[in-house]
Amino acid sequence: MRRHRTTPRPDWQRTVEEQGVVYPLTRHPDGVLRPYWDESAYYSFSLPEIEALEETVAELHGMCLEAAEHIVTAGRFAELGIRDGRLAALVAESWRRRDELPSLYGRFDLRYDGNGPAKLLEYNADTPTSLVEAASAQWFWMEDRFAGRPGADQWNSLHERLVEAWRRQTPLLPPGAPVHFAHTAGDEIGEDLMTVAYLRETAAQAGLDTRAVSMEDIGWDRISGRFVDDRYGFVRACFKLYPWEWMTEDRFGPYVLDTLDNGGGTGSTLWIEPAWKMLLSNKALLAVLWELFPGHPNLLPSYADGPRDLVSYVSKPLLGREGAGVVIHPGGGPPPVPREEPCCYQELAPLPEFDGNRVVLGAWVVDGEPAGMGIRESVGLVTDGYARFVPHVIL
């Protein structure tokens, strides 16, 4: 694994915008726009490194499924903040019916520097983003920059696997009904919009009939007891880039549970990702994994009831994205103030530094199989909303 500095392509911003990355710049707190898509550098990997990472991701995904089974069997929903008995029962039922419910993708965040095993930082299995740049823009970048170079490749089968996932899972969808693709209208930079638009394109390539809708335009028809779109069409199946914890807690939450409770009946809505993904997108999963697989080389010691014997650690809210609420406790000094909100306490494994940049690998899983990688760089130890996406190549 090496970082290389290079010169961006002429008119790179227009190029990536045409490929779906309509958010190539990020406005920082000082008011200055800086690249989010950053092709002034790239990372190279050897094929054995990528093969080892693929094996690691496959094993981690399998372990996460074992942890989900344990949570359901042992009834440990409260540790994930799922204290509503009805919701817990519906999540458990969703898990038991997982072979009957479409499930598309997820992203592992890994600490890796080319030396030693990759370490799991978290698993976003419900609403992962940075997909368009990983699946599309960096592939076209490689084709431009390494055209004609023998052996140049990329860990990136995302597009093909997404199309095939839709095609394979078509029998699980309601027959004759379009699949709605929903994002929140509160998305100001366009990342959610383009992620959903890209996934809708992969579904269309698989032969599915699709519709676009914002989450805010999905309503509840009290007469028929159904969710409907802005044209009063029945929302029979819906991919939503909208976290389950928001779905179940907003004012439509009781109706969401009602549609799940129907178990495929006339008024039910098939939500993608399914409700059982709540078990994997919760940081408490990290503590369960460490409990079930103590000492595993790809895991970091993690606990849900406090830092225990950890000297340096990171406290992470059970639910959160883009580094929100993550606090680093480097050890030494006065003891940290206990946090009131439920957290997972994970041993501190500082992100590796390349040319002054802190690096995290985002490894993708599609339909249960490793499918590709994206890399983000940040200045600090927490990968937040100001991180940059940097492409990679296998040489």
What can you see in these coordinates?
The protein has 395 residues and is α+β, with helices and mostly antiparallel strands. It contains nine helices and 21 strands. The termini are close together. The mean pLDDT is 93.
Structural class label: alpha+beta
Ranges where pLDDT stays below 50 over 5 or more residues in a row are: none
Shape: globular
Q: Which bin fits the share of residues in helices?
A: 25-40%
Classify the beta-strand content into a percent band.
15-25%
Q: What's the total helix number?
A: 9
Number of strands: 21
Terminal residue distance: 10 Å
Largest sheet: 6 strands, antiparallel
Rounded to the nearest angstrom, the radius of gyration is 21 Å
Multimer state? single chain
Average residue-wise pLDDT = 93
SSE order: EHEEEHHEEHHEHEEEEHHEHEEEEEEEEE
Summary?
This protein is α+β, with helices and mostly antiparallel strands and 395 residues long.
Topology:
Elements lengths: L1 E4 L6 H7 L6 E3 L5 E3 L5 E5 L1 H28 L10 H12 L8 E7 L7 E6 L6 H15 L12 H12 L9 E5 L7 H15 L4 E5 L4 E3 L4 E3 L8 E4 L3 H6 L3 H9 L8 E3 L11 H9 L9 E2 L9 E5 L9 E3 L13 E5 L5 E2 L2 E10 L2 E10 L9 E3 L1 E3 L1
Parallel strand pairs: 4-21, 7-8, 7-11, 11-12
Antiparallel strand pairs: 1-4, 2-3, 5-6, 5-18, 9-10, 13-16, 14-15, 14-16, 17-18, 18-19, 19-20
Helix pairs in contact: 2-9, 5-6
Q: What descriptive keywords fit this protein?
A:
395 residues; alpha+beta; 6-stranded antiparallel beta sheet; 4-stranded parallel beta sheet; 9 helices
